[in-house]
Amino acid sequence: MAADQILKGKTIVLTGAALGLGRVMALALAEAGANIGALDLAGNADALRALVAEADQKGVARRILPLFADVRNFSEVEVAVKQLEHQFGDLFGLVNNAGLGMQTIGPVQVGPWKKFYEVGIENWQNVIDVNLIGPFVVTKSVAPRLVARGRGRIVNVTTGIRTMQTEGFCPYGPSKAGLEAASVIWAKDLRSSGVTVNVLLPGGAADTRMIPDHEIPDRTQLVSPLMMAAPIVWLMSDGSEAVTSQRFNAAKWNDASTLQDNLQQAAAPAGFSF
Fold first, then answer.
1. What proportions of the chain, in percent to the nearest 5, are helix, strand and coil?
2. Strand order of the sheet with strand 152-157?
3. Alpha-carbon span 173 to 178, nearest angstrom
4. Would you say residue 17 has pLDDT above 60?
5. Percent of the chain residues past pLDDT 90, beyond the cut
6. Which residue among 33, 85, 107, 162 is least enclosed by CB atoms within 10 Å?
């Protein structure tokens, strides 16, 4: 099958699409043939326009529909989802990628970090709202549509278990740990529905705005966002139909390897084990 036909006809909502990991995944999915609802905040309108311009250079701009909504607001999300359905038809997938990082609170890769009780209540609430409640809100809108069709994919972008437990990483670590746990529960709730739920993570600190340039000037030390492209395309493909409640490490996914090798190297059960 041609690379641009793998996801032909599949309509996917992708949150936090304007920048970073979201931008890479939006372009990769569109190049694979999917129709993308590129959802982000209105404040990122310029970045979304830049995404569409880059997609145009790749010949896939017609497959990307910019959408504006705050993932914490169910009414806004519903309006955006209906716009996407009107443009491209029934939904097939959702990528919950929108998130806030530790850069909104203090140092990320270099200390000293704030202790959990030194973080402002508003900062804590914002991160939890965007990183944990936001995915629930968007999934609450999308999941019933997928269940009604009897098929679909949900992928939640989390982080490494080590990062979830890193000193000074409150509230980012707990927010992603909560999303990981939610992913396992959602997969169980959707068992036998035809809808799968999996987790995708970069596999290390990624070269995005969440890691300030002044903290790590040499960006080659960071995981390239491009690593997300191949695994997210596979997770939205027919080939992943039987896979659910798994976490995938993008940094361990090798385009040159066989699918079996990638599943062995990059996949593990989602959640936490003793």
1. 50, 15, 35
2. 64-68, 35-40, 11-15, 93-96, 152-157, 195-201, 246-249, 267-269
3. 9
4. yes
5. 82
6. 162
Residue at 121: amino acid letter: I
Q: Which of 88, 92, 113, 172 is catalytic?
A: 172
Q: What mean pLDDT do residues 18-35 have?
A: 97
Look up residue 132 and give its DSSP letter. I
| CA torsion through residues 71, 77, 80, 85, sign | positive
What pLDDT score does 1 carry? 66
pLDDT one-digit tens code per residue, 106-150: 767 777 889 999 999 999 999 999 999 999 999 999 999 999 999
Exposure of 182 in the CB half-sphere (CA atoms within 13 A) = 21
Q: Global pTM?
A: 0.94
- For 1, other C-beta atoms within 10 Å of its C-beta total 10
Are 118 and 64 in contact by the 8 Å Cβ rule? The answer is: no
Query: Cα–Cα distance between 95 and 39 in angstroms, integer?
Result: 10
**Among 62, 63, 47, 81, which residue's Cα sits nearest to residue 208?**
47
Residues in CB range of 18: below 8 A, 6 or more apart = 38, 40, 41, 44, 47, 48, 50, 51
CB 196 within 8 A of CB 241: yes
CA neighbor of 127 nearest in space, from 175, 78, 65: 175
Neighbours of 193 (CB within 10 A): 15
Measured over the CA atoms of residue 39, residue 44, residue 49 and residue 53, the dihedral's sign is negative
Average pLDDT of span 219-226: 83
- Does residue 98 surpass a pLDDT of 80? yes
User: Please, what is the end-to-end C-alpha distance for the chain in angstroms?
Assistant: 41
Reply yes or no on whether 117 is catalytic.
no
